[in-house]
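Deliverable D4.2, example record:
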Amino acid sequence: MTTTELSRLALALIVGGLLGAAYFGGLYLTVKQVGQASSPQLLLVGSFVVRLLVVLGAFYLLSAWGALAMMTCLGGFLIARLAWLRSRYGRG
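Output generated by the structure prediction step:
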């Protein structure tokens, strides 16, 4: 594996972590606002669509680097999910 490939994988991991933090942070903010929203269904669906389009768009752009970079990005996304859950609910 070359230095360029390793740097791409490291960048993919970081991008995945940032995507995961944005996705689950957005979900958290959306759920917090549901009680005060005049149209909670629209808020939930709109938030989901925006979050999904951002994540899918980033994965689409990352697909040019190959399957290994996409899997690394997914790993970063899942690590961010795990970190988010542990920061909110603890270890157990």
